[in-house]
Structures are given as C-alpha cells and as structure tokens.
Amino acid sequence: MRKIFYGILANFGLTFFTFFYVSYLLNVPYNFYNFLVIISVRQLVSFVCFNDYNLSWSKSSINTAYIKLFSNSISFIIYFLIFRIFEVNIPFNILIFELSTFLIVISFCIYTYRFFKISTKYFKKNSVIIYGAGRAGINLQNELIDSKVLFFIDEDKKLHYRSVDGIKIISPENVIEKNQNLTDTTLIIALPSASSKKKTRIYNKFKLLVNEIKFLPPVDEILKEKPFSKQLKNISILDLLARNPKDLDKNLISKFIKDRIILITGSSGSIGSELLKISIKNKAKEIIAIDHNEFGQYGILEKEYNKVKTYVISVLNKDSISEIFKKHKPDIVLHAAAYKHVHLSEYSISSTIKNNIIGTRNVVDLSILNNVKKFVLISTDKAVNPTNIMGASKSVCELYCQNIESNGTDIISVRFGNVLGSSGSVIPKFQSQINNDLDITVTHKDITRYFMLVTEACNLVFQAASIGKNSDILILKMGNPIKISELAQKMIDLSGKYYLKIKYTGLRKGEKLYEELLFSDKDKKTEYESITVAKRRKVKFHELNKMIQKLIEVPESEKINILKKILPDFNHMRDN
Question: Of 68, 382, 394, 559, which residue is the catalytic one?
Fold first, then answer.
C-alpha cells in the first residue's frame, strides 16, 4: 500500500509540475480547476483501466513506457472532450505540450530511479551469470536488482559481443577459455523450453566453474502471476534425467479423461496419486480412489477434492470392490495397486502373488461384469523374462489381461520401467545416504535401469490407454538405460559432497543386472514414437485360470515351480 501511495503521489506531483510549468512557458494564466480535471481523469483512468499507478519503478521495462503512453493518451482524449463539451477556454497546444512534458518527465524519473537502484548491485556480493539472453533471461535480469549480473551466456552466434543494458553476451566457449574465477557465482539456466539433455550438457560444462546452478522450470510449470526470480529451482537429479517426450498429445489425453468416471486402485502410491492429479486436471466427471493404505487415503481426503470419492479397501476384498463398481459405474479403471519392491517380494512370496495376481483378477473380472469401457493394468519391465517373484506375478497379470474374454471391455496393459523419485526408487535412498554423510551403496558396478519421471509416465499411460485396443500391451519408450553407479555419482556431484564414495554390496535376491522392455523384436510401432504395442502372447485361458488357482492353493515351497509352468521364460534368480 505504501508503494501504491507513492505512485499516486508521483502522478499528482508530476502533473502539478508539468501543468504549471507549461502554463508559465506558454504565458497562459494558471487555472487550478483545469489542473484538477486533468489530474482527476488521469488518476481515474490509471485506477480503473491500467493500474499503472502501482507499477514497480525498480522493475520497469520497455513495456512500462508503453503502458504509461497508452494510459495517458486515453486520459488526454477524455479530458480534452470534457473541456470541449463544457466549453472551457483552454488552448489545445497547452494540453498537447503538457502531455508530452509529463510523459518525458515521468519516464525520466522511472528509468533514472531504476538505473540507480540497479547500480547499487555493484556494492552487493551476489554475482550471477544468466545462461540464455532470450525473453526469460532478460526478464530475470530486470528482476534481479539485488544481484550483480556479470554477463549473459548464449549459444546464438548473432548475439555474441552484443549487450543487454550494458551487460555483455558471450559464448559458452569464451567463458571456459578465459577460465575466470567464478567460484562465488550462481549460474542461472534461463531456458524454460530446453530439454533435460541440454540442461545436463550445460550442468556438466559449468558445474566445476561456479558455486551453484539454478534454473527456470519448464514452460508448462512456470506460473504467470509469479516473478521468474521467485520460481528458480536448484538443479536436481530428476531435472537432469527428465525426458519430456515431444509426442505427448495433451489434447488426446484431455479428451480421453474429460467427463469420464475414473476408478484408480493404488491411489496413494507414486503412480496412483499422479494418475489422480492428472484426472482432476483434465476434468474427469468423478474419480474413485481405492487403496488399502489408510494414511495415504487420509492425505487424499484432507485435500478436499470435489470430485474424488476415497475408499480404504484392499483389491483382494472382491465383495467390497464390487459394491463400489455398482455404486459408481466407472467408465475407465486404472489398476496401479501392486506390491512392487523386488527384494522384499522374495521374502513375501505368497502375499506378493496373492496381492498382485488375485487383486488384478478381481478388478479385471469386475470391470468386465460392470461393462467398463476400458481397463488399464499398470505393468513393469520386470515382467519381461522375469527373474524375480514381483516380475513373474506381473507377467501372469499381463497374460490374464491378454487372454480373458472381455465382452466389449478393452483390457489393456501399459508396461514401463522405474519411476524416478517413487517410494521404490533408488533416488530417495541415495538422497538419504547423502544427507546423512554416508557413502552410497550400489548393488553392482554394471547394473542398469530404465528411468522415467512419474508425471511423464502417467501422462503417457493415459495417452497409451486412449489408443490401446483389447488385449494390447503398450510399452512406453524409456530412452537409454542408465548405470546406477553413474546416477549415484551425479547425485554426489550435485550435493557438493565430493568426499563421499560409492560402495558395491552385491545383487540382492531376484535382481537383474539389466531390465528388458520387449519379449520380441516384432513389436508394432504406433502413431506415437513414445509408445509401442507388444506382440500378443496367446494361452488357453481356462488352463491359465486353473494354474492361477493352483498357484494360490499350493504351499509356498511349490509356488515357484507353478510360476515356471505358467511362464516358460521365468528364470528365478538368474543373475544371482
């Protein structure tokens, strides 16, 4: 309010000065009432139409001058008409001269104030380099009045040796060749549309030269009403590994979700909760969230989503799930509920098989019985040539989904690799070790995994579901596999704790050295590069169902043998 008051005061004071100064220069008698009309109209237009009285002078740009010009031109037209309607005897030239003088004086005051405000940064300690001399970089430079911007870096050769407000634009190579002392400097990557690959390249090039690296979030995450300088983020491993697929079809996803009733199992998990957020964002008619995690479901309830109905139920409770299907009549079912921890599943064979396979069977059967339009199984790369119980259980689920008689319901599976930052990911574990100054433990120096951001994966799940047909297994393109040891080293580098080491502990039960996404090289391409359709695996469904029932009934010691009969490719503990 104080700054708004100063803005109004400046308008009043400068109008008072220019009106009486111009009257004196043109030798026209002073008329205080004419002055009151001009300042009243000027202030009214400023208040009602443009809010230019509260413009921040210290953050002024070329747009500030345009707004002032337009606002005062509108004001001029209004008070000129008032004078003519009421036949006020005031020369036209005094009005034009006053307007011109006012615009010159107020612009001079604004930009002089901004210049001296920015000049004070040379007495401050914060030194900044901005990577990117585009609109985002220039906006940041205007906002960072408390920091000294040393120079811009840009890869565009046309901009080299030019400047922005006296600040030089130089090439990345020039910075590295000069080998300047930048150890107390912050590098800001002002490239919101840059890929994670480009950010990684910039990070690797400058990480040893500067004190810290920050960046602007991607274009679709930037908040328009918030200054760029307030949205800067410290660069994290997730930012370096994000891929942001170019063929993400947001219109298709929105059309698939909008006005549909969507049921999500495992809604408290990393994937389920993201599927829920995307459903809300894309205006689903109603969302039914099911999970047996009471605390997680309570968290959803506390957010007070208008269209979300929350239930604490296990997918093994078929009768209760059936009541929910009858009550809400979902159009789409997303089945994300599963035990996913490979190592833990080896010590909980019976419960993993029961939860994953019988839970999936229950939800698939109920989807068909209740005429659901589309059922989507969230599967995993560990289902391909499985070497562990979790992967084998998911492979059985895929077989069940591919071979059941669906009676008009599209039963599809979507298969992808590890989700970055999820509860089962190595990243939270590594971060915890780094935070506690502990060496990072990696199972094997050659172990690799596919990774994908949870937002990216879940958007592609919806995209795949929208194009998938009955019995399809859709595989999300995961890029190249990443060595876990290299991932650990990057996290150490980002933390700045270079004294931490990587220790190798040996593969745990059921773990693979590498994951696979495809059973066959004959998988079909789709219209989207990020999605492939796997070749169908046909089995006799009634025999599969009998084997699943037997799998549940036999003692735990015999379960692995039954799994091997169902899945000829199951090679338990292959890499152990």
Answer: 382
HSE of 528 in the Cβ direction (CA atoms, 13 Å)? 24
Enumerate residues 6+ apart whose C-beta is below 8 A from 331.
260, 261, 262, 372, 373, 374
Can you spell out the DSSP letters for 195-232? -HHHHHHHHHHHTTTSSEEEEPPPGGG--TTS-GGGS-
C-alpha atoms less than 13 angstroms from C-alpha of 203 in its C-beta half-sphere:
22
Tokens of 439: 């060496």
**CA 153, 159, 162, 167 torsion: positive or negative?**
negative
Token look-up 């001029």 returns: 76
Q: Which amino acid is at 553?
A: E
| CB of 381 closer than 8 Å to CB of 515 | yes
**Global confidence as pTM:** 0.72
Specify whether the CB–CB gap between 355 and 338 falls below 8 A.
yes
Residue type, 448: T
DSSP 355-386: IIIIHHHHHHHHHHHTT-SEEEEEEEGGGSS-
Instruction: Estimate to the nearest angstrom the gap between the alpha carbon of 402 and the chain centroid.
Output: 33
pLDDT band for position 421 (50/70/90)? low
- What is the C-alpha separation between 106 and 40, in angstroms, rounded? 17
CB atoms within 10 A of CB 503: 12
pLDDT, tens digit (0-9, with 9 covering 90-100), for 165-205: 778 999 998 888 876 778 888 999 999 888 878 888 898 88
* Distance between CA atoms of residues 267 and 333, nearest Å: 12
| Alpha-carbon gap, residue 348 to 341, rounded angstroms | 10
Average pLDDT, the chain: 88
Residue 31 has pLDDT above 90, yes or no: no
Q: How many helices (H) and strands (E) does the chain have?
A: 21, 22
Active site residue 382: yes
pLDDT at residue 379, as a whole number? 96
Sheet containing 531-533, strands listed edge to edge, beginning at the edge strand earlier in sequence = 308-312, 286-291, 261-265, 332-335, 374-380, 410-416, 473-476, 531-533, 524-525
Nearest CA-CA partner of 520 in 540, 538, 502, 541: 538
Query: Do 513 and 446 touch, CB atoms closer than 8 A?
Result: yes
Q: Extract the tokens encoding 181.
A: 């002392």
